[in-house]
Amino acid sequence: MFSMLKSYAQACCNLLFPRSCHICSKLLCGATARFDDHLCADCFASMKRCDVVSCRSCGSALTEEREKEEYFCRRCRNDRPDYHRLLSCYVYDGPVRSLIHKLKYEGRAYLASTVAKLIAAALADKWLDQFDALVPVPLHAARAREREFNQADLIARHLARGTSLPVVPALQRSKNTQALADLKKQGRMRVLNHAFRLEERLSPMLRQRRILLVDDIVTTTATARMTSRLLMDEGACRQVTVLAFAKG
Ligand SMILES: [Zn+2]
Ligand SMILES: [Zn+2]
After folding, report:
1. Could you tell me if residue 116 is left (phi over 0), alpha (psi between -120 and 50 degrees) or otherwise beta?
2. DSSP structural state of residue 123
3. Same structural domain for residues 43 and 111?
4. Is the pTM of this model over 0.90?
5. Is 115 within a domain?
6. Are residues 96 and 138 in the same domain?
7. What is the CATH number for 183?
8. 237 CA to middle of ligand 2, Å?
9. What is the span of the domain harbouring residue 30?
10. Maximal CA-CA distance, the chain
11. Which end of the chain, N or C, is more open, meaning fewer C-beta atoms within 10 Å of its C-beta?
12. How many angstroms is it from 55 CA to the middle of ligand 2?
């Protein structure tokens, strides 16, 4: 009875205040036209998935035979990170770029639930079973205050819903790092060195655990490399896998 009333109320509400897609503004009418309450099926269909055959470390496409055999691109073969592998879901372009922009810079925190659903849609069933805890990549405190939320933390919490997995915000950013994409590799590493620290109080929750390190977007992998080193060395984690909604 309650669920009937609830769906009736929802139908009335949709009639009075029709929802529309946050990317293209099209009205979300009918179950087949929508991905969820915030995204239409057409925008979802136009999101480009990352290549299945891609480098385990950086997610770039593999072209040479040797690369395909080893699952590492030429660059990462000689410079392997401390994380086990990178799971990147969509290419940072078109509707994926708009969605991240609206979530991060227009303060639409509720879009983190759409991002979590899109991640689940891109990965195999029961993919979360292989982890023991989720760790979000942190924002610097000053940026978190401006934005009022850390999108990686929200995404991790939505992913963990309905599972028994804990979200452990054990990583802290100790320096407000400048935009990394503009720097060369040595410069990036110099900036990132000491940029993160582990929250000692929470690190016992990570010891010998298989960690999913969650971020909204991965570009240079410098942050993933630095934070996973910290988790493996100081956190004594068993394994770190990096999850990125988008690959830039
Ligand atoms: Zn749309
Ligand atoms: Zn690579």
Report:
1. alpha
2. S
3. no
4. no
5. yes
6. yes
7. 3.40.50
8. 23
9. 19-48
10. 63
11. N
12. 5
